[in-house]
Q: What sequence folds into this?
C-alpha cells in the first residue's frame, strides 16, 4: 500500500483538466519518472508557479470541482505519483481521472463543497499538512494555529484498490 | 420498471459485482493506440503477464503521432507494433493504413449494437453512436482489459437528451452538441451516459451521430449513445449481412432489443428544439463556453484546422469544401485539413474535395490526431488563434499559449476565407 498524507498544495480552481496536469507533448515518454518535472506546467491559475516551493514537498492536493476533466491519459495521476503526491481531495472529479487514481492504488477523496470551503480557509497559512487515517476514514488538516478534522467515505471497491495497490493485482487475482 | 439501453448492456455483460455499485463487465472490443498502450504493454511485460485475452477482440492503431516525428514517438510506435505482431493481432493499422481511431474502427466494422468497448482514449464515447456502451479509460483499465477482457464500472445512470425541430441551414451536429454541452455544463453528465434521441437524431446519418456522441465526454459523460436502428444497420450492413441471412429487416428488428424501454428511469431529461439554433463557436478554455458565431465575428484567426475524430469524416470534408469551393484562404491564414482515414482521403480525392482545399491554399495532411492535442502537424505558437473542428479548447491544448475556437467544418471553412470567425451564411 502507498503512503498517504503530508504537506498540502492548494489549487483554488474548478475544472483543472488533464492537459494542464500534464501537457500532451510529454506523452511520448514511456517511463512515468520522466514526467516528474512537467507536473502542472500549463496550469492556468493566477499566482501559481509550477516551479514553486511546493515542488518536492507537497504530498496532498486540495482543489475544487471536476478535477481531472478531459483526456483519459493516466499520465496525469502518474505525474502526481512520481512527485510523491498520492492523494487528491476535491469536491468532485471527472470519472476517468478518478478511476485512474484508484487504479494506481492512490486516493481521490471526494468531500462536500462546504467541507472543501472550510479546508480552503487554511490555504493562506505558511504550511498546511494533512494526516490521512484510512482505517477510521478521517482527514486531519493542521496549520500553525488551526486544525480541521474531516470524515470521508470510500466505496468498498475504491478501498480494495488502495489496499491491493491497484487494479492490475486485484483483477489478476480475481478474474 | 423499464431499463435503459445502458442497463440492458450492463446486465448482458455482467461478470461480477465484487462490491455494491461496482460492475465488472466482459468486453467485446478493446481498442488501443500508441500513446496510452505502450506503458500498459511495458507494465505487462514487467509483471511477466505479456498476454492478451483474445487477439481477435483487440484492435490497434498508430494514430496520434504518425508517421513518427522523433525518436520517442518512433519507440512508442515500435512497442505497439511489435506487441501486435507478437500476439497476432490482425486488426493493427500502421503507417499507410492508419487513421484516427474513432473514425477508422467504425469504418472497419468493429462495432455492434449492444457491445461493450473500452479504449485508452477519452473520445471512445464516439462508438456509442452504434448503440454500444463505449467508454474511455486510462492505461491501467486498458491493461486489465488487454489481459483479462474485463473492466469495472459504477452503476450506470442516464441523461436523456431529446433533439427535435427542424435543423436550420448551415447548422450541423457539431453546433447542436456544443449547444447541448453549454446547457449541461462541463461536468453536468459526470458518471452518466447521455442518450441522444428524438426525430433529429433519428434523421441523422451515422457520421452526424458520431459527432454528437464524440463530445459526450466534454459534458463529463461516461459515454454518449444513440438507439440502433435502420441507419445503423445500413452502415454496418457490409459486415453483418451474413449474420442476418441478407435480410436487413431482421437486423433492424434484432437491434430493438437494445432500445431503452419507454418507462426507463433517467436522472435528468433535456429537450432541445434546434429550429432557431445558429452556427456557434466556443470561446475561452472550456467546451461549455459557447456563443453564436455572429457575436464574436471580429475575432481574427491564424489557423483553420479541419479533421479529428469529431469532424474529419467525408461528410465533414464535403461540408467544408462546399463553403471553400472557388475561394482562397484569407491572407495570413494557414489552413490544414486532415482526412480522418485513408478511405476518407481517397474518397475526398475522387470527389475533387482535395483539389478544392489545395486551390484555396490548404495543406492536406495525412490522417492523424496530431494537432488536436498539440502533439504534431499543426501545433500553435504562443498567442495564435485557431478555429478548429476538434473537440477540446483547453488552455494550451493545441500548443502552449494558443487559443482554440471549436466549430463545425462549415464555420471553420468560412472563417478561413474571411480571416476571422465567420458565420458560414455570410460567405457567398
A:
Amino acid at each position: 500500500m502507498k503512503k498517504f498524507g503530508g504537506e498540502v498544495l492548494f489549487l483554488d480552481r474548478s475544472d483543472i483538466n488533464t492537459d494542464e496536469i500534464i501537457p500532451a507533448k510529454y506523452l511520448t515518454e514511456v517511463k512515468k519518472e520522466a514526467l516528474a518535472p512537467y507536473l502542472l506546467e500549463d496550469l492556468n491559475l493566477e499566482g501559481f508557479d509550477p516551479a514553486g516551493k511546493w515542488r518536492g514537498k507537497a504530498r496532498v492536493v486540495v482543489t475544487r470541482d471536476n478535477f481531472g476533466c478531459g483526456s483519459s491519459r493516466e499520465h496525469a495521476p502518474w505525474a502526481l505519483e512520481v512527485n510523491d503526491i498520492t492523494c487528491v481531495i476535491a469536491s468532485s472529479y471527472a470519472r476517468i481521472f478518478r478511476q485512474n487514481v484508484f487504479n494506481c492504488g492512490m486516493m481521490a477523496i471526494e468531500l462536500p463543497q462546504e467541507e472543501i470551503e472550510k479546508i480552503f480557509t487554511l490555504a493562506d497559512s505558511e504550511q498546511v499538512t494533512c494526516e490521512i487515517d484510512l482505517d477510521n476514514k478521517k482527514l486531519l488538516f493542521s496549520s500553525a494555529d488551526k486544525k480541521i478534522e474531516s470524515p470521508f467515505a470510500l466505496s468498498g471497491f475504491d478501498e480494495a484498490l488502495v489496499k491491493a495497490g491497484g487494479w492490475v493485482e486485484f483483477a489478476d487475482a480475481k478474474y | 420498471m423499464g431499463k435503459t439501453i445502458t442497463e440492458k448492456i450492463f446486465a448482458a455483460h455482467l461478470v461480477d459485482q465484487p462490491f455494491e455499485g461496482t460492475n465488472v463487465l466482459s468486453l467485446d472490443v478493446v481498442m488501443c493506440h500508441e500513446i496510452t498502450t505502450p506503458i500498459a504493454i511495458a507494465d505487462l511485460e514487467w509483471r511477466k503477464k505479456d498476454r492478451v485475452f483474445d487477439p481477435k477482440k483487440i484492435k490497434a492503431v498508430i494514430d496520434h503521432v504518425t508517421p513518427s516525428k522523433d525518436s520517442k514517438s518512433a519507440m512508442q510506435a515500435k512497442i505497439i507494433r511489435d506487441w501486435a505482431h507478437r500476439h497476432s493481432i490482425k486488426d493493427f493499422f500502421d503507417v499507410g493504413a492508419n487513421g484516427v481511431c474513432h473514425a477508422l474502427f467504425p469504418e472497419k466494422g468493429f462495432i455492434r449494437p449492444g457491445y461493450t468497448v473500452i479504449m485508452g482514449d477519452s473520445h471512445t464515447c464516439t462508438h456509442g453512436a452504434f448503440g454500444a456502451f463505449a467508454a474511455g479509460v486510462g492505461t491501467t483499465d486498458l491493461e486489465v482489459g488487454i489481459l483479462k477482457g474485463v473492466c469495472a464500472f459504477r452503476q450506470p445512470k442516464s441523461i436523456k437528451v431529446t433533439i427535435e425541430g427542424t435543423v436550420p441551414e448551415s447548422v450541423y451536429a457539431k453546433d447542436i452538441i456544443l449547444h447541448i454541452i453549454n446547457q449541461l455544463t462541463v461536468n453536468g453528465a459526470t458518471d452518466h451516459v447521455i442518450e441522444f434521441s428524438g426525430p433529429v437524431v433519428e434523421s441523422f446519418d451515422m457520421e452526424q451521430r458520431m459527432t454528437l456522441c464524440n463530445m459526450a465526454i466534454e459534458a463529463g459523460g461516461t459515454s454518449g449513445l444513440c438507439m440502433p436502428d435502420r441507419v445503423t444497420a445500413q452502415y454496418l450492413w457490409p459486415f453483418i449481412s451474413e449474420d442476418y441471412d441478407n435480410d436487413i429487416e431482421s437486423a433492424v428488428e434484432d437491434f430493438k432489443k437494445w432500445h431503452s424501454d419507454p418507462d426507463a428511469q433517467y436522472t435528468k431529461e433535456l429537450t432541445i428544439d434546434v429550429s432557431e439554433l445558429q452556427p456557434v463557436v466556443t470561446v475561452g478554455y472550456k467546451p461549455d463556453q459557447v456563443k453564436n458565431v455572429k457575436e464574436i465575428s471580429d475575432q481574427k484567426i491564424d489557423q483553420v484546422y479541419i479533421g479529428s475524430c469529431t469532424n474529419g469524416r467525408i461528410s465533414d470534408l464535403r461540408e467544408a469544401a462546399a463553403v471553400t469551393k472557388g475561394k482562397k484562404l484569407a491572407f495570413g491564414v494557414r489552413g490544414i485539413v486532415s482526412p480522418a482515414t485513408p478511405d476518407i482521403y481517397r474518397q475526398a480525392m475522387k470527389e475533387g474535395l482535395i483539389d478544392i482545399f489545395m486551390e484555396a491554399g490548404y495543406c492536406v495532411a495525412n490522417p492523424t490526431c496530431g494537432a488536436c492535442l498539440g502533439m504534431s502537424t499543426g501545433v500553435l505558437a504562443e498567442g495564435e488563434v485557431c478555429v478548429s473542428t476538434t473537440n477540446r479548447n483547453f488552455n494550451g491544448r493545441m500548443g502552449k499559449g494558443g487559443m482554440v475556437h471549436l466549430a463545425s467544418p462549415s464555420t471553420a471553412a468560412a472563417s478561413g476565407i474571411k480571416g476571422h470567425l465567420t458565420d458560414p451564411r455570410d460567405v457567398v
Remarks:
- Chain A has a mean pLDDT of 96.
